[in-house]
Amino acid sequence: MKNEKYKETINNLIIKTKNLIRNHKTKIKIISLIILILIILSTLIAIIIYKDKTTQKYIEYNGENLNTSKYPGYKELIDKLKQNHPNWTFTLFYTKLDFNEVIKNEGHKDGTEFPLNLIPDSSKYPEDWKCEIDKDKRFDNGTWLCASDKAIKYQMDPRNIINEENIFQFKELNYCERSSYNRRHRRNNK
Questions:
Q1: Which of 8, 36, 82, 178 has a CA 20 to 30 Å removed from the CA of 60?
Q2: What is the C-alpha separation between 44 and 40, in angstroms, rounded?
């Protein structure tokens, strides 16, 4: 008896829904079209936001546009160089890479024949800069050892090389064949 009551209720619901659709076809089509447009727009917005988050970008440093909570220590180092060399221009390069993920991928893993990163076999480097997996195993010409994650982290952290001696390894080297300097220089040397 309960089953028949449920079946009757469901059948009545189905009949009412069909009548509603028949009586309001135009409204339903318009609502369906609006829903479809909203879905497409939200998908496009999500794609644009995702693309922006995954795109590398360059931003010229102005002293205020560096997130110091996300990048601690960078501002102080760059500002010190700017103070000593006011004509220098610094460009921030956001790679969108996770630093810890990069270190993990750059480190040596069990089962691989050759490590990705090596350090010279030298007493200048601390013992914990040798990777745990290969310790004293020699590579290349016999004077290189596998680098530990600690060594890779140190070498890949830009804060360790934002100083007057090492900053130029970040310099962007552009070549302009017909620059005004080259033309003047050639004329003066003739």
A1: 178
A2: 6
Strand bridging mode 118-120 / 144-146? antiparallel
* Cβ-count burial 114-141 (b if 16+ within 10 Å, e if not): ebebbbeeeeebeeebbbeebeeeeeee
Taking the CB of residue 147, how many other CB atoms lie within 10 A of it? 25
User: Phi, psi at residue 183, to the nearest 5°?
Assistant: -65, -45
Contact by Cβ (8 Å): 78, 66: yes
C-alpha of 21 from chain center: 50
DSSP state of 113: S
CA–CA separation, 17 and 25 (whole Å): 12
Question: In what helix (H) or strand (E) does residue 185 lie, and over which residues does it extend?
Answer: helix 180-188
Contacts 24+ apart (CB under 8 A), 27-34: none
Identify the residue whose tokens are 């010190």.
80
Amino acid 161 reads I
